[in-house]
Write a structure and sequence with these properties.
115 residues; three-stranded antiparallel beta sheet; 3 strands
């Protein structure tokens, strides 16, 4: 059995944007904000979700002991929200030294089996 090919995050984001019908400029705006705030997952949504019923931009941060789901109509509004939450976090939350980072799509669950 052969190993899976490496995942290119930029290509994955481009495919999601293309297949999800993201509006012009949304892909670049999300990528830029994600570069500015590396701990955040930033994307556009067509709406219809409980946490973002209207179309717009979302940012998700999941750290051990902290979770934020933000939604805004514009990337500028979202940038302000992300900056405000980020400013309130202790530095150790973002560098992983005290709390650790978890992938935003992995449930927070401390009942993992012992290795």
């Amino acid at each position: 059995m052969s190993a899976l090919p490496p995942v290119d995050p930029a290509e994955s984001r481009r495919l999601i944007a293309e297949r999800g019908g993201w509006p012009a400029g949304a892909l670049e705006a999300c990528a830029q904000l994600a570069l500015e705030y590396e701990s955040w997952l930033v994307f556009w949504t067509a709406g219809g979700m409980p946490l973002s019923p209207d179309p717009g931009f979302r940012a998700v941060l999941v750290l051990h002991g902290h979770r934020s789901n933000l939604h805004a109509a514009t990337i500028e509004e979202l940038r302000v929200q992300v900056a405000a939450v980020d400013a309130e976090l202790p530095p150790s939350a973002l560098d992983g030294s005290a709390l650790g980072r978890y992938h935003p799509l992995v449930p927070l669950n401390d009942s993992r089996p012992d290795d």
